[in-house]
Every structure is written in C-alpha cells, then in structure tokens.
Amino acid sequence: MSRPIIFGEISGIQEGHWFTGRKEMMINGFHRSWGVGIDGNRHEGASAVVLSGGYEDDLDLGNEIIYTGAGGNNPNTGKQVEDQSWENRGNAGLLFSMDQGLPVRVIRGYKHRSEFSPIKGYTYAGLYSVVDAWEEIGKSGFKICRFRLEYSGNNYNRQISEKIELDYSRQNTERKETTVLRIIRVTKIARDIKKLYNYECQICQVVIHTKSGRYAEGAHIRPLGRPHNGDDNPNNILCLCPNHHVMFDKGSFSIEDNLELVGMVSGQLVLHAKHKLNISNLKYHRQSHGYN
Ligand SMILES: [Zn+2]
C-alpha cells in the first residue's frame, strides 16, 4: 500500500460517482485496499469504507449507517464465525477517525442489500462522520465492533432529510459541529439533574465556571436514538464535566452496579440521595464498551 492516505473529497469524483469495480477506486487513492472493507490504520485513521454485503449485521438507513467493523466473518456467506477485535487495523482506524473528527468516504457495492445499493458496480455515497462506536453480540452470537456513520457531506437536500429522519427536533437537541461532531443534549430533565448536583461532576466533583454561570453536561448512560434507544429519564442521566462526559461516551471508563468505576478512571460515582439510577443501563454501558 504505497499510496498515501487521503481524507475527504478527491477531485474528479463527485457524490454519486459510479465505479465498475474495486480496481478503479485504487488508482487515485479513493480506496486503496483490495478486498478489504475499511481503508486505513490505527495511526492515520480510516478514510474510506465499502459496504459490500459481507457483514450480516450492517444496517443502512441512507444518511445513517450502522456499520459492522472488520474481521471474524466468512466472506462468502457474510456470517460471523468468530469475535471481532478493536485491535483490528480497520476498526482501530475508524476509532481514530471518530476521535479526530476525520471524514470517511462511504461506497456501496452491488452485493450490499439496501435500497441505496447499485445493481452493478459501486457508487460513492458521500462523506460521513463516525459519531459512535460500541460493541455488541451480532446475529450469529459473536462479538462485533459497531460504528454509527452519519452523512456529513455538503449536499444540502440530504442534510434536511437526515434531520427529519433522526427526529432530533422533538428532543429539543442542539447540533454543534466542532473538530469532533458532538450532539449536546439540552432536555429539561438533564437540566434538572445538573441543578440537583449544582453542576458538580459526579466523577471528579469539579465545576466549570463560565461567564454565564456554572456549567456541566447531562450524559445519557444508555444513549438516546438508534440503535441504543435509551430513555430521557433521570435514572439514565449523569451530571458530568465535559472531560468525563467525553470519556464516558467513548467508554474510557464505565460504572459497576455498586457505583465503582472501571477502566481508565478509578474511584466511585458520586450519587445524590434523590437520584436513583437504572442499573440495567449501567450494565448496557459496560457491555457496549467491553467491560464484563
Ligand atoms: Zn469530571
């Protein structure tokens, strides 16, 4: 793989571009790897993925794709035959792209089963952002690495339809794009929880002071939205500082049923007497990030 990795759009190849085969994508570095879904590695990130029907757990909703990581499958049947790993070159690359906010080119192949797939060859679906990563047990009973990709290209019409499809407006959510795309939840329930803690982080008890007053973030233990479908309920929300919010969402640490922390942060979750947590959501978070 001598060609350098290139992120973002490549001149001469517009969204919707049709390729007759994989070889055509390799010439200009559009997707450099033959027979592999994810082009990238842990040090540089992943720049392109192909949906080729090789993974039975893939879910394609158009502007939102639940993508199965690489490894552990029988390429002929698409069935998982062993566990996937975050150490896998491609999976580690997608994690890096998520954390660094790097765009990923998505390509759909003719074998991919979705209404968006071409009948022949491959089509370029546009730029997507990796906005979430977790692990779960797939259809065949093996651990799979999962990524949520959201369309982030410049096609205005598509961005509108994405907002309707995801129905974020109902939840009074403000979308904010920074280096890494983060969706800040500002529901009333989250505000109440933050007030209960007087904006002190439940992990480090630090308060962020801003010109408008004390600042903290409401962190959902089991995330809202597909495919997690957590509740916007006090028993599913923590009051965290921005650092611990990011670390929690990315699974740098998790929380045991007895409120002890596991992972890269040690100690105990601070819990107010009036704040009851749904223990099954803690379990969901641990399982999503490979603890117990
Ligand atoms: Zn904190």
The radius of gyration over CA amounts to 20 Å
Low-confidence stretches: 160-181
Question: How large is the share of residues in beta strands?
Answer: 25-35%
Give a short account of the largest sheet. 8 strands, mixed
N to C succession of SSEs:
EHEEEEHEEEHEEHEEEEHEEH
DSSP E strands, number: 16
Cofactors, ions, other ligands: zinc ion
Characterization of this structure:
This protein has helices at residues 23-26, 89-100, 156-166, 188-196, 242-249, 279-288; strands at residues 18-19, 38-41, 45-51, 59-60, 64-68, 104-109, 122-137, 143-151, 173-177, 181-185, 208-210, 213-215, 217-220, 237-240, 253-255, 261-263. By secondary structure, the chain is an alpha+beta fold. The two termini are 37 Å apart. Zinc ion binds at residues 201, 203-204, 206, 240-241, 243-244.
Map the helices and strands.
Blueprint: E1 18-19, H1 23-26, E2 38-41, E3 45-51, E4 59-60, E5 64-68, H2 89-100, E6 104-109, E7 122-137, E8 143-151, H3 156-166, E9 173-177, E10 181-185, H4 188-196, E11 208-210, E12 213-215, E13 217-220, E14 237-240, H5 242-249, E15 253-255, E16 261-263, H6 279-288
Parallel strand pairs: 3-6
Antiparallel strand pairs: 1-7, 2-3, 4-5, 5-8, 6-7, 7-8, 9-10, 11-12, 13-14, 15-16
The structure holds zinc ion.
